[in-house]
Amino acid sequence: MTDLLEVDGLTAGYGAAPVLHDVALTVGAGRIVAVLGANGAGKTTLLRTLSGLLPATSGRVTFDGVDLRGVQVERMVRHGIAHVPEGRGVVTELTVAENLRLGSLWRKRKPGSKATDLDEIYDLFPALAGRKNHLGHQLSGGERQMLAIGRALAAKPRLLLLDEPSLGLAPKITAQIMGLLRDLRDRTGLAVLLVEQNVRGALSVADEGIVLNLGRVAARERADKLAADTDLRHAYLGF
Amino acid sequence: MDRFLYLTFDGLSRGAVYSAFALALVLIWRAARIVNFAQGAMAVATAYAGYSVADATGSYWLGFVVAITGGLVLGAVVERVVMRFVDRSSPLNGVVVALGLVLIIQGVLGMIYGNEYRPAPAPFSRDAFEIGGVALLSRYDLFVFAAVGAVVVLLTLLFTRTSTGLRMRAAAFAPDVSRLLGVPVGGMLTLGWALAAAVGSLAGMLVVPTELGLHPNAMDLLFISAFTAAVLGGLDSPVGAVAGGLLVGLLLAYVGGYLGATVAPMAVLILLVVVLLGRPDGLFGKAKARTA
Asked: Rounded to an integer, what distance in angstroms lies between the CA atom of residue B276 and that of residue B259?
């Protein structure tokens, strides 16, 4: 299996102080990789660096063989990378339908892509279908998360960067979202880099886990091995 | 009663121009969170360009097109070359830079065209024709209503019906998220400035024939009236800007008509102060905090 995303020696941060040190990881097509670690471990910074919101100080990021260094944030989606930021990032002043359309806009001029694409999203999230004309700020937390993920999927990405989808959500909805990720991986070959505080939830769907500690990769393991490694869990994950 | 009707129509006709100019201010406010205090000077500059072409070619309409196109270009240039590089940590920075632009533009216009009023003829008769025995509207008033109405309709269609409009709104509300979705946020900002400046130029072209003529400071009073209109409408709302413009136009007409023309500019300033003190979110604004 070839790797879709390859990261090597990645160092990045805000101002002079780096948050990430020499991070290396790979995500294969159709794989879910969970990024775990305490608050401040650099999980969100990792995603922001990968999608270009934050410039890397050094290191190499390639996606499907393409060097992503210097690629602008707004071009990432064309390469097949969609990033759902922490705090959901729904545009609250726009309606559900407009948010989803926004996700699919970049494909607009390609032949064969029609508004029917959005029907797939409404099939995945029936709760959104009944609220097409509601504004973002009228939605519940769970609905906003579904909208943010749905909007990212409307861009037809090959890699989804997902930042804390379970934040502030009821366990039932979290489980629903994790189930959806597993389903998308199996059905469409979507690759996911999943940042989570909810370690159990994340490892339940992930193929592989990466533990970040103070901006460095402390462990890279198969998800089931990671879940079984009591010492590692105690040391870095707090359970 | 005839006088009241006359003043009402006069106020609405003036108000339509304020609406257009207020709309220009709201467009930039929504896109960049800057009140473009240079809007008036930019509009004068393009009006000069328009009337220069009109004088040289004898065609008002060619000059009209040049002025609007000039607005598009000038708006884009001001955003790309100046406003993009303004430090946004304090909202005052943008204001100061805009005021600096006013001085530069007015200074340059004074050097090229001189600081006296140049005649600016209207493309249609400004003589009112009679409706039911009362002289209420001129052909030029109808042209003003049609032009402003067309701008409102076109902007509404742009923002609600087109992908570009959706991109522009998203880029203004949530720039980072929009970039992640592939929206060229910087380009949308430039487009917003270009459109706003073009609408401002239109308002300038419409108002100049109704005033003393072209002068580097010709839009100063228009700017104050339109700014009041925009604030009255909540600064964030295009509908509010249009309604605010009509209200300010009516106020100016009534005050000017019943209390004297010299009182009118003061009435606008008093209205501005009252609105800022009493309803800083505008008549139509709803105080709403942005979440997420």
From this structure: 24
pLDDT at A168 (0 to 100): 84
The answer to whether the CB atoms of B182 and A151 lie below 8 A apart is: no
Verify whether the Cβ–Cβ distance B176 to A53 is below 8 Å: yes
pLDDT tens-place string over residues B35-68: 999 999 999 999 999 999 999 999 999 999 999 9
Residue B269 lies in a domain: no
B179, B181, B188, B190: best to mutate for the A interface, most A CBs within 10 A: B181
pLDDT at A111: 56
Residues B152-202 have pLDDT tens digits of 999 999 999 999 999 999 999 999 999 999 999 999 999 999 999 999 999
* Domain limits for position B123: 15-219
Cα–Cα distance for residue pair A84/A33, rounded to 1 Å = 15
Q: How far apart are CA B190 and CA B171, in angstroms?
A: 11
Q: Which residues of chain B have pLDDT under 70?
A: 285-292
In a domain, B81, yes or no: yes
What ipTM score was computed for the predicted complex, to two decimals?
Answer: 0.90
Q: Is A218 on the interface with B (CB under 8 A)?
A: no
CA A48 from chain center: how many Å?
10
A chain contacts of residue B170, beta-carbon cutoff 8 Å:
91, 94, 98, 102
Provide the number of structural domains found in chain A.
1
Tell me if A160 sits within 8 A of A191, measured CB to CB: yes
pLDDT given at position A25: 94
B259 is a domain residue: no
Number of domains in chain B: 1
Nearest Cα of chain B lies from the Cα of A238 at a distance, in angstroms, of 29
Tokens of A110: 């390609």
Report chain B residues touching chain A, CB-CB < 8 A. Answer: 163, 166-167, 169-170, 173-174, 176-185, 290-292
Which pTM does this prediction carry?
A: 0.89
State whether B182 and A89 contact (CB < 8 Å): no
The DSSP result for B13-44, as a single string, is HHHHHHHHHHHHHHHHHHHHS---TTHHHHHH
**Which of B166, B182, B292 is the closest to A92 by Cβ?**
B292
Q: What domain range is A186 assigned to?
A: 3-237
Domain-located, residue B208: yes
The one-letter amino acid code at A133 reads N
Q: Is A140 on the interface with B (CB under 8 A)?
A: no
